[in-house]
């Protein structure tokens, strides 16, 4: 008898609106609990709570329409907190990253403290537009998670406790392979379909994409079904195979192009023969997979600064600025 397949825990994102200073305490509690659940050793749960608290405090003090997104990292055992707001931005970012710097009368270790504690910290700011940040934490001495060049957010619809979307990323001999799943509708039944699809994907993530989709189709026959998008990276190109309204597109520093949606149908109910599309993907370009909980109109006239964001911040920007809150929303971003 073979060994059981080890399947990563499903990604779930907790969204915290920072519309009052009380949200800072909630952010710290949420971060601490997540780090404990992920079994980060020693003082790391408290360190992660401090990171979330400092990012939340900055939003509460200085920003409009601030939000935090707390979640496990997509690869490895680390955790991350994403921060977004709609302005005013920081005109002196380098000074703000100095430990102990504050623009208020308080001590305010602030962003300098986050930069010092986090295993990896990425931040971009645009005056008049706002600030985006990603702070990641993993155990010292462990190999850095192979999540560089990736970013994701997976959120339930407003009013729902579970997301009917799901996503995953696996590195295999066949290439880095990503999946975004959108269970039909939302709520528990959609979540059941999405998690069934995710389990099927993890059984053989190295399989040819049509075979993966056929396996997921069989796994979903007793569920309400789902839209599924699969993306596999190769040198200088990517393969996309999907059914339903999961979009894939390529982002360069100049434009968004190669926009595709899946073939018409529902995986688990009525699925056409899967087709594989090849997308040019030169080194340094970015591929985005997202469910229809992200408004597709973001690609029509994206501002230049959006096109230059690193993957975790682009995923954050899509979730914060282009999410349709009545539906589950997932964005998965990969740099080649």
From TrEMBL:
SMART domains xrefs: PP2C_SIG
InterPro entries recorded: HATPase_C_sf, PPM-type-like_dom_sf, PPM-type_phosphatase-like_dom, Ptase_RsbX
Name recorded for this polypeptide: PPM-type phosphatase domain-containing protein
All copies of domain PPM-type phosphatase, residue ranges: 147-336
Signal peptide segment: none
Pfam families reported for this sequence: SpoIIE (PF07228)
């Amino acid at each position: 008898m073979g060994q059981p397949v080890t399947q990563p825990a499903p990604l779930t994102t907790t969204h915290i609106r920072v519309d009052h200073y009380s949200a800072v305490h909630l952010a710290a509690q949420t971060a601490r609990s997540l780090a404990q659940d992920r079994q980060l050793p020693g003082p790391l749960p408290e360190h992660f709570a401090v990171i979330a608290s400092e990012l939340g405090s900055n939003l509460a003090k200085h920003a409009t329409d601030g939000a935090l997104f707390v979640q496990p990292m997509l690869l490895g055992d680390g955790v991350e907190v994403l921060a977004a707001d709609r302005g005013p931005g920081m005109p002196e970012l380098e000074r703000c990253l100095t430990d102990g710097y504050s623009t208020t009368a308080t001590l305010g270790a602030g962003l300098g403290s986050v930069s010092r504690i986090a295993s990896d910290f990425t931040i971009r700011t645009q005056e008049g537009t706002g600030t985006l940040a990603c702070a990641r934490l993993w155990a010292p001495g462990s190999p850095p998670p192979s999540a560089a060049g990736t970013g994701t957010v997976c959120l339930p619809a407003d009013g729902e406790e579970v997301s009917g979307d799901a996503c995953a990323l696996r590195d295999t001999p066949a290439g880095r392979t990503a999946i975004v799943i959108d269970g039909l509708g939302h709520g528990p039944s959609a979540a059941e379909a999405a998690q069934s699809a995710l389990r099927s994907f993890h059984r053989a993530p190295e399989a040819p994409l049509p075979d993966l989709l056929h396996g997921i189709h069989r796994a979903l026959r007793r569920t309400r079904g789902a839209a599924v998008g699969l993306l596999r990276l190769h040198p200088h190109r990517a393969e996309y195979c999907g059914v339903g309204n999961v979009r894939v597109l390529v982002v360069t520093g100049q434009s968004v192009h190669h926009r595709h949606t899946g073939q018409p149908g529902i995986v688990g109910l009525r699925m056409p023969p899967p087709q594989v599309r090849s997308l040019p993907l030169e080194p340094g370009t970015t591929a985005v997979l997202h469910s229809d909980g992200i408004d597709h109109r973001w690609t029509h006239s994206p501002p230049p600064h959006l096109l230059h964001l690193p993957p975790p911040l682009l995923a954050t920007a899509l979730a914060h600025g282009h999410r349709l809150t009545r539906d589950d929303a997932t964005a998965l971003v990969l740099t080649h």
